Amino acid sequence: xxxxxxxxxxxxxxxxxxxxxxxxxxxxxxxxxxxxxxxxxxxxxxxxxxxxxxxxxxxxxxxxxxxxxxxxxxxxxxxxxxxxxxxxxxxxxxxxxxxxxxxxxxxxxxxxxxxxxxxxxxxxxxxxxxxxxxxxxxxxxxxxxxxxxxxxxxxxxxxxxxxxxxxxxxxxxxxxxxxxxxxxxxxxxxx
Length: 191
Hints:
By secondary structure, this protein is α/β, with parallel strands linked by helices.
């Protein structure tokens, strides 16, 4: 309803931007922290819900999102338009983990396990249907406004890793890193 109100107001040259999940320095949700911490703790393996490995979810690096917002706010061609803002290529969760591994130097394994077989702290708190990916197509903003990402993917991941290492979340619940339970699950999964 808000989008319709903005787009249908002839006095207001509004633009709607639908943003992907944002990562990078300043991410108050520290979306990649759990993965980075496990890698920095030299875990031999990272456990993942097997249904999640091929799941795609649109992300965007914070500086690229900011550039898209500035462009849409300052380019008259954006008036009364809707644009999705996210990386051109939507990676699977497995590809994301390997990208972070490359940035951290982690050499472990990714081990898919059924959700029921995961330790409780690694299960989703709300059910997620991983058969349905959530992908934004950002072709329109690239085509119509000549938008181009300023920060390449690998650079954005490296900067995020560096920032999270220097600025980890203030509150880290040790129960979220129950490595004994993860080790028991890993042994069961590999035998």
